[in-house]
Amino acid sequence: MNHPKIHLNLDGQEMEVNPGTTLLDACRERGASVPTLCHEDRLEPFGGCRMCLVELDGAPRLVPACKTPASNGMVVRSASASLERVRGTIAEMLMAEHRPASGGRPDAMEKVAKRFQLGAPPIQFPLRDEYRDRNRFIGFDTNACILCNRCVRYCDEIMAVTALEHFGQGPNAIVQPTDGLSFLDTSCELCGGCISSCPTGALYEKEAHGIAESACETTRTVCTFCGVGCVIDLNTKDGAVVKVTAEVGVGPNDGHLCTKGRFAWQFIHHGDRLTEPLVRGEDGVLYVATWEEAYARVVEGLSKVKESYGPDSIGFLASSRCTNEDVYALQKLARSVMGTNNVHSCAAT
Ligand code: SF4
Ligand code: SF4
């Protein structure tokens, strides 16, 4: 059933939107630039930071666009001199509560500068202690936290894990892993989604060593850890991967990743990684060989087994890290060359 459209006036122009549309959605649809901090499209509207305040005729005060549903006859203004002033004051108050440049981490400084459109470093306030956690992947610089609760809500609404909490009130309020424990002692799954959701870089990838995004090249690819096909961006500096990110709205994962997809990339540059085929000599030791020698050994071994025990004594298992084309070629090898249907991929289960 089609619900009737809602008619409102935004910035002097009439527009119609679907029921359930918020004023923020309407502004975006119109191309009006409204700043946000605590808002994340993947999360329920929160209305916590007040950066997206707009003027609504008849309302006693400014209203948060992210949390106000559009309704018939509304007259809304998304930009004015007084809105600029109010948003500026709110940004200053948020900045006064934290020091995003703490420790001089370029990634946090860059994130905050982009968000707040800063030309100069923010006011310097005494540092709280960095939350030192023994987990290997997620760093938490509480000085850069503006208590927007995006990470807490991400963990709750998306992951259904609640490994982060907003604790305390007023000037004593903090965000922390639940009960102030290490991430490793909470129900945290180390997915790193809270990092992707954090607008200030307070939560960050430890192994990226604070390298700013603008210092990295990104290469879009598909994660090979399982068969879901999550789209990932390899962030590289000087030819080496420094972190993995995922863009919201892209691929089946929509910016989400599991712990392997986000953090288990060190094998790429690991010294133990095999880069050449190895063939076992008669002395039992593995020797570097050419691909031709390696293939010849495989053919010899499989042929002997087939001759002695029949084709169904052989099975082929494809890694989930193979591409579809690799897996197709493997089942061809199994069925057409070896004559067995014993073929499977762990991505199928
Ligand atoms: S890593 Fe994932 S599970 Fe752990 S706190 Fe962050 S969002 Fe929650
Ligand atoms: S850690 Fe980041 S996402 Fe979480 S409340 Fe602080 S600023 Fe917001």
Structure in words:
This protein is α+β, with helices and mostly antiparallel strands and 349 residues long. Among the domains are: 6-91, Ubiquitin-like (UB roll) (Roll); 98-215, Alpha-Beta Plaits (2-Layer Sandwich), CATH 3.30.70; 310-349, no CATH class. Helices cover 25% and strands 18% of the residues. The chain is built from 8 helices and 16 strands. The strands form 6 sheets. It has a 5-stranded mixed sheet with strand order 2-1-5-3-4, sandwiched between helices. The chain has a 3-stranded antiparallel sheet with strand order 10-11-12. A two-stranded antiparallel sheet has the order 6-9. Strand 7 (164-167) and strand 8 (174-177) form a beta hairpin. The structure holds iron/sulfur cluster (SF4) (2 copies). One iron/sulfur cluster (SF4) binds at residues 138, 154-155, 159, 161, 163-164, 188-194.
